[in-house]
């Protein structure tokens, strides 16, 4: 009991030298499976591992217990809180997420708005390495698990406003979009005279 480190908050690893990145609602969940080799998948409240530096409140085999806006418990749920929202890799040196192409935010929690400068379409953007600079997959992907301070540029190609799906739905005759992704799925509201994604 005296031969192991108890890491400070947001640090992990045997010697507490590794950083923990930001968490967000997972865009896609990763099934954990039978973690304790009991040949059954535990329920949402059966904690399998407790006190880990990455999951201090424990981890379960089943999806988390969730309820809808009326308070009704939903049996099959998803979008648990995950490191880098399951759409990026954690840079354990500085504790920053490097997001997969098409995602941004401190925890990769948002889908990026389309941009001609950030597009993977051949011939788009500026310069030979434009796609790499903006972390969009091409033959030389910039996705290496090391976070880079790259700001999204020219969102909506400079001819529109990047908005959430909830905002875009409301602008379309007052429609309502109140699902889990209402604040994370993004799209462009084009300026007059412009169309396209």
UniProtKB/TrEMBL annotation:
<feature type="domain" description="EGF-like">
    <location>
        <begin position="80"/>
        <end position="109"/>
    </location>
</feature>
<dbReference type="Pfam" id="PF07974">
    <property type="entry name" value="EGF_2"/>
</dbReference>
<feature type="disulfide bond">
    <location>
        <begin position="99"/>
        <end position="108"/>
    </location>
</feature>
<keyword id="KW-0245">EGF-like domain</keyword>
<protein>
    <submittedName>
        <fullName>Sexually induced protein SIG 1</fullName>
    </submittedName>
</protein>
<dbReference type="InterPro" id="IPR000742">
    <property type="entry name" value="EGF"/>
</dbReference>
<keyword id="KW-1015">Disulfide bond</keyword>
<dbReference type="InterPro" id="IPR013111">
    <property type="entry name" value="EGF_extracell"/>
</dbReference>
């Amino acid at each position: 009991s005296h031969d192991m480190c108890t890491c400070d908050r947001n640090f992990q690893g045997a010697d507490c030298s590794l950083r923990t990145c930001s968490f967000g609602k997972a865009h896609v969940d990763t099934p954990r499976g039978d973690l304790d080799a009991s040949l059954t998948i535990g329920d949402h409240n059966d904690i399998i591992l407790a006190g880990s530096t990455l999951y201090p409140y424990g981890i379960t085999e089943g999806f988390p217990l969730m309820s809808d806006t009326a308070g009704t418990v939903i049996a099959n749920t998803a979008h648990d809180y995950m490191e880098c929202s399951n759409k990026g890799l954690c840079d354990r040196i500085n504790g920053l997420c490097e997001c997969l192409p098409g995602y941004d935010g401190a925890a990769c929690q948002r889908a990026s708005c389309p941009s001609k400068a950030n597009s993977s379409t051949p011939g788009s953007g500026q310069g030979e390495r434009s796609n790499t600079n903006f972390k969009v997959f091409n033959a030389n992907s910039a996705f290496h698990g090391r976070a880079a301070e790259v700001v999204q540029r020219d969102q909506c190609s400079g001819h529109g406003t990047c908005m959430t799906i909830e905002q875009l739905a409301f602008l379309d005759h007052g429609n309502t979009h109140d699902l889990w992704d209402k604040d994370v799925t993004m799209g462009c509201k084009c300026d007059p005279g412009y169309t396209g994604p």
